[in-house]
UniProtKB/TrEMBL annotation:
Classification via PROSITE patterns: MFS
Pfam family, one: MFS_1
Protein name, UniProt field: Major facilitator superfamily (MFS) profile domain-containing protein
Source species, domain of life: Bacteria
Membrane topology: Multi-pass membrane protein
InterPro entries, alphabetized: MFS, MFS_dom, MFS_trans_sf
Gene Ontology cellular component list: membrane
Major facilitator superfamily (MFS) profile domain span: 39-475
Keywords, ordered alphabetically: Membrane, Transmembrane, Transmembrane helix, Transport
UniProt-annotated location(s): Membrane
TM annotation in the entry: 42-64, 76-96, 108-128, 160-183, 195-215, 227-246, 252-270, 290-312, 324-348, 355-375, 381-406, 427-446, 452-470
Species the sequence originates in: Teichococcus deserti
GO molecular function list: transmembrane transporter activity
Length: 490
């Protein structure tokens, strides 16, 4: 190299602060453009990890419960604690995604979910395990909106339906991943912690490595709001305890908590008024298309949660089918739901006005009505047909509702949209036992399971009606997107 060139290079290094200048071909932005599927793949793995957290807990907790000889009622509390942590943490932690940045929040969520997932599987006493399960739900509450917002920001708006459908298929596969790990490592005699580490670590590491492509986080509207976060947790906790406590249990002391919760709700609404990106997503609820999709999500989640409580026992008892014989059709229905979500998302990208959401809700309603009306120990072919209809309907509802929610919200508000969707679904799941008590008050349609399935069919039918709220033209407002929407930039 000529001396003049060497001197020029030294001067360039000094002016650059000692950093070697990167050529455009090797810069992070160019790398991200060359690998446009890495960020969406990381987001899909994040959503699959959210599902893994719940399925692993359901498998490990009975083992820990037996090891520690805990009371029978404690298992229900431990299983519900993660859902409670998720519901309470969704809105506050989703507000941190714009503050930290989508990619940084996603990676924090990956680490938090992995650490809390491992700690929650340690054999400790009831109260430490309960606290860790709550924190595990809170970690999931950060990972879920961060994953969905990363998916929304890294995929062009014209393809978000296919991305959401792929997420549905990934979640369906993830639900069976722990069982495969258990079967594969059972001979090694690993403790539950080793099994959980083997199930969680590979997808977590893969998601972390895939999320390194973005040069910098995209700036989203929002700011750190500690008072709003505190009011959110306190308000939701008091309302979730006070409403069923007063109206279901008839406990006046819990009714006082309801009154305090309503006062805090008013204070929270006042505190959030006028903010550019409020933690309480009132700006999104003002959009009819978004509000309608959120209502569909609530009603469909209520139907699904209610049916899940009684359906397997109803089929096993009525048709004399053992768990081994029923496992294969249920697994097939679960995979069919994932494939239906993928197909429904693909169709919504090509025809945004396609009736994917109402069709899915109608299939759910028809399936639950058929389950309730079939006479026991007869018409097994119709029983299989109802199971298939329920799987397809669930997949179409998942893809249709999530796609509509993400499209009808501004791109910068995708963390709040994701949190609102997961919040209503979590509330519906927490309310499932009370909905079962409500079903018992219905006229004499049959046994408890038949009444519950009939009420689930009603909820699914209402979801189909609610899917027509809003106009298709409302989707895409403030939405996609510049040609470089797949790459984060300031």
């Amino acid at each position: 190299m000529p001396p003049g060139a060497t001197l020029a290079r030294a001067e360039a290094l000094i002016s650059a602060g000692g950093r070697v200048p990167q050529s455009p071909a090797s810069s992070p932005a160019a790398e991200a453009e060359a690998s446009p599927f890495r960020l969406p793949a990381a987001a899909l793995l994040g959503l699959a990890l959210v599902a893994l957290q719940g399925s692993i807990g359901a498998m490990v907790l009975p083992i820990l419960h037996a090891q520690l000889a805990l009371p029978a009622t404690s298992l229900g509390w431990l299983l519900s604690a993660q859902l409670a942590g998720l519901v309470l943490g969704l809105l506050p932690l989703a507000s941190l995604v714009p503050v930290a940045g989508p990619r940084r929040a996603f990676r924090l969520g990956l680490v938090a979910a992995l650490v809390m997932g491992l700690l929650a599987c340690l054999p400790m006493g009831f109260w430490p395990m309960l606290a860790l399960r709550l924190l595990q739900g809170a970690a999931t509450a950060l990972l879920l909106p961060a994953s969905l917002s990363l998916l929304r920001l890294s995929v062009p708006g014209a393809r978000i339906g296919l991305a959401v459908g792929a997420a549905g298929l990934g979640v369906a596969v993830a639900l069976y991943w722990p069982s495969l790990v258990w079967i594969g490592l059972d001979r090694l005699g690993l403790p539950p912690l080793g099994m959980v580490a083997a199930a969680l670590a590979p997808p977590t590491v893969a998601a972390w490595l895939l999320s390194t492509t973005a040069p910098r986080d995209r700036r989203l509207p929002g700011r750190f709001d500690p008072l709003g976060m505190l009011l959110a947790v306190a308000t939701l906790a008091l309302l979730l305890v006070g409403i069923p406590g007063l109206f279901v249990l008839g406990n006046l002391l819990l009714g006082v908590l309801l009154v305090i919760g309503l006062v805090l709700l008013g204070l929270w609404i006042w505190q959030q008024h006028g903010r550019e990106a409020p933690l309480l997503p009132g700006d999104l609820l003002a959009r009819p298309r978004f509000a309608g999709a959120l209502l569909v999500r609530l009603l469909a989640a209520a139907a699904l949660s209610l049916a899940e409580l009684v359906l397997i026992h109803h089929v096993m008892r009525g048709w004399g089918i053992g768990p081994g014989a029923l496992g294969l059709p249920l697994a097939f229905a679960g995979m069919l739901a994932g494939l239906a979500a993928l197909g429904g998302g693909w169709l919504l990208d090509r025809r945004p006005a396609a009736p994917v959401l109402p069709l899915g809700a109608v299939l759910l309603a028809a399936a639950y009505a058929l389950f309730a009306a079939l006479p026991p120990d007869e018409a097994r072919a119709l029983l299989l047909l109802a199971l298939l209809a329920a799987g397809i309907g669930r997949g179409l509802v998942e893809a249709g509702a999530t796609t509509r929610l993400l499209r009808s919200a501004p791109v910068g508000r995708s963390p709040a949209a994701a949190a609102a969707q997961a919040l209503v679904e979590g509330i519906a799941r927490m309310a499932a036992p009370f909905l079962l008590a409500l079903a018992a008050m219905l006229p004499a349609l049959g046994g408890e399971a038949v009444r519950a399935l009939a009420l689930a069919a009603v909820f699914a039918g209402l979801a189909a009606a609610a899917s027509f709220i809003g106009r298709v033209e409302e989707e895409g407002e403030d939405g996609p997107e510049a040609p470089d929407a797949r790459v984060f930039s300031d």
